[in-house]
Specification:
6 helices, Helix Hairpins, globular, mainly alpha
Length: about 110
């Protein structure tokens, strides 16, 4: 298995674990508790982790950036599961954008 395939498999396994916690007893896991607290709390945690990743990036803290990226990715996957979005949904969008310049893609969305 290549690093890319392994990465995809790791992310998919994590997503499946997160999705399986929906509706579980909030006392059973952090993920179940977070999902039970709802979209607002999930978004708050996602934002906190994004800020922490930005701080690590600005500080050029490689290890901090790795750890915060893992936290950010986890909370993003929780937000996806909460919204009914799968990794395949996001990968399909990335594939759709592949080969399109970022400027052209933003212009097509009306963001200039």
């Amino acid at each position: 298995m290549t690093r890319s395939e392994n990465t995809d498999a790791t992310i998919l396994r994590l997503y499946e674990t997160i999705a399986s916690r929906k509706g579980s007893d909030p006392a059973s896991s952090y993920t179940a508790k977070l999902l039970d607290q709802g979209t607002g709390k999930i978004a708050q945690k996602l934002g906190e982790e994004a800020v922490e990743a930005v701080i690590a990036a600005v500080a050029k803290d490689r290890n901090g950036m790795i750890g915060e990226s893992a936290d950010l990715l986890y909370h993003l996957l929780v937000a996806w599961a909460d919204a009914g979005i799968t990794p395949d949904d996001v990968l399909a969008e990335l594939e759709r954008r592949e080969g399109i310049s970022g400027l052209a893609e933003k212009a097509a969305r009306g963001e200039g």
